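User: Quick one: structure for sequence A, then sequence B.

Assistant: Sequence A:
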Amino acid sequence: MRILITNDDGINAPGLEVLHAIATDLAGPEGEVWTVAPAFEQSGVGHCISYTHPTMISEFGPRRFAAEGSPADCVLAALHDVLMDTPPDLVLSGVNKGNNSAENTLYSGTIGAAIEAAIQGVPAIALSQYYGPGNIGLDNQFEAAAHHGAEVIRKILAMPGAFESVPYKLFYNVNFPPLPAAEVRGIRAVGQGFRENTSGMGMRADIAPNGRKFLWITGAPQNVPSGADTDATANLDGFISVTPMRADLTAYDRLSTLKAAIE
């Protein structure tokens, strides 16, 4: 198996090292693991692409490249340049430093890479490690992902028709709970949740010493459940969450109402 790995935390991020180990396990001795990752951190860029300027790419070592662009740019660079003649069988994105559950999914560059791979027709899985009191003090904060990652991916790959969907291909969002590996309670297939009664993303103004105003993005509490049978709730209950996704944003449950109103 030929596997492409990328992330949004940058090519030197510890989570990418964890993902490389997971991918190496999956690929086997006859397989290949290729890295095309952002040269610098790209957290929160979502599915952004560098449409208005070129992306410089540099080879850091055997099968290891850094691109001055977003995670989606890295997938495009891999599929249309680095691996153009030998496309990957699977794209893995992560392991993200922090969860991409609930509404975080919409901001995530880790997810953005998986979306782009799916649009390009390549099976893709995004992986993220929830942080919390249960793992923040560990020597390896990615312990749950490192220990359980290959197992979860194998279960997804073994599922009949795992990535089949028309016209938008399926991809998967996997989040590991904020616990040591030995305390993970299992795996749950769940939907994307929403953390209610939180402020969500916000913005705070600060005045610099030169008198200029700067605005800083602020986050919301992450230890908030997201409703029954959803990702953040499963993670906070000690389970690995697996959520099937596609890039079709249509609200199908509202189409008939809209048709009646405007047609």
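Sequence B:
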Amino acid sequence: MRILITNDDGINAPGLEVLAAIAAGLAGERGEVWTVAPAFEQSGVAHSISYTRPMMIAEMGERRFAAEGSPADCVLAALHDVMKDAPPDLVLSGVNRGNNSAENVLYSGTLGGAMEAALQGVPAIALSQYLGPRNRSLADPFETAARFGVDVIRRILSADVPNGMDYGLFYNVNFPPLPAAEVKGMRVARQGARPGTTYGVEPYSSPSGRRFLWIRGTDQHRPAAGGSDATVNLEGYVSITPMRADLTAHDALEALRVIE
């Protein structure tokens, strides 16, 4: 198996090292793992692409490249340049430092990379490690992702879920904020919404008097609706959420037809 890995925390992020090990376990001795990842951190860029400017790409080692762009840019660079003669069988994005459950899905560059792969017709899975008081201070805060990553991906691929729609499937996997020994199992879950959890800004004045704004989030440990991703993560389970790049509010279509 030929696997492409990327992330949004940057090519030197520890989570990408964890993902490289997961990918190597999946690819096997005869497989290949290719890395095309952002040269610098790209957290929060969602599915953005560098449409109005070129991006520099540099070879950092064997099958390892850094691109000055977003995770979606990196996937495009891999599929249409770096790996154009032999495209990957699978794209993995992550392992993100922090959860991409609930509303975080909409901001996540990790999900943006997986989404772009799906739009290009390549199977893709995003992986994120939820952090909290039970695992943040561990010697390896990614130990849960490292322990369960290969098994989760193999189970997803073995399910052989039909993919015959306009927008291809990709998967969002979040590992719970626990040491690996305390994980209870896996749950297929829908995307949730943590009540009252929205982003905002915090003003800041520099010594020179210039005004800046920091983007700030809120409590990531509020549960969402029962059975949804953030809730099952906080209950101790790995969440697996199938997704498509279709933002249509299908439940509102019929009601809106009265205006036609």
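The longest helix spans residues 143-158. The chain has one domain: 2-195+222-246.

User: Thanks, that's what I needed.
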